[in-house]
Amino acid sequence: MHQNHTHSASQTGPETRGATLHKASQYDFHTRLMGLGVNQANSRMIAQMANIKAGDKVLDVGCGSGNLTLTAKRYAGRSGSVYGIDASPEMIDVARKKAKGMSTDVVFDVALIEKLPFEDSKFDVVISRLVLHHLPDDLKQQALAEIFRVLKPGGTIFLADFQTPANPIVARLISLFIGHPAMMQSKVSSLTPMLAEAGFDHLTAGQTQSMFMGFASGNKPKDR
């Protein structure tokens, strides 16, 4: 699922030191198997845990082929607005086709998580799934600072990423299925100090209902 990527500047996307995933059709095949498709169980779980409500303005950073983004629109409703950004033009092309097929007004654009093309204090909720492990730590911190900037005071950040299961046999089996070495050493709760450094408060972290995925979340203080 995560094996086709590049860290370099190329003709297929903006320059970034993070990994950029390509081959969107292969990506979608694997995500469907994992229940990460549009309105499938994992996508619904993330939208619910992020507490996306009708009327919210939502940003999905590193949206891939748009599955979680399109699910978020279901929760934000007609009165809400939802955006997805990704460094891969191939992924954005697929996401736009999905949005068109669903006759939904979700906006997808090619952009970097560490350089968000939005004004300050625009969004109520920023979500991200299986993205942060692709970034080196300094780029993670830069990305979190950008998310802090575009969130409204009181807004929510919700990050879901690999969380190695405590059972080593289960961890190994899942790692083989996912095909990504980060699975064996990943711990999304390690993002909590980075969230604090970026300025977020009301920090929480833990396991999701998925055996391979944890979460870290926080809020932008209301006085910021």
Average of pLDDT: 84
Low-confidence stretches: 1-11
Rg from alpha-carbon coordinates: 16 Å
Strand order of the biggest β-sheet: 5-4-3-6-7-9-8
Count of individual domains: 1
Helicity, as a percent range: 25-40%
User: Main beta sheet: strand number and arrangement?
Assistant: 7 strands, mixed
According to CATH, what is the topology?
Answer: Rossmann fold
Strand content: 15-25%
CATH architecture: 3-Layer(aba) Sandwich
Count of helical stretches: 7
**Form type:** globular
Count all strands and give the number: 9
- One letter per element, helices H and strands E, the order comes to EEHHEHEHEEHEHHEE
- Based on helices, strands and strand pairing, what is the structural class? alpha/beta
Distance between the termini: 38 Å
CATH superfamily: Vaccinia Virus protein VP39
CATH class: Alpha Beta
Please outline what is shown here.
It contains 7 helices and 9 strands; from the N terminus they run ββααβαβαββαβααββ.
Summarize the structure in words:
It is a single chain. By secondary structure, this protein is α/β, with parallel strands linked by helices. Helix content is 33%, strand content 23%. It contains seven helices and nine strands; from the N terminus they run E-E-H-H-E-H-E-H-E-E-H-E-H-H-E-E. A hairpin with a 5-residue loop joins strand 8 (201-207) and strand 9. Helix 2 packs across helix 3. It starts with a strand and ends in a 5-residue tail after the last strand.
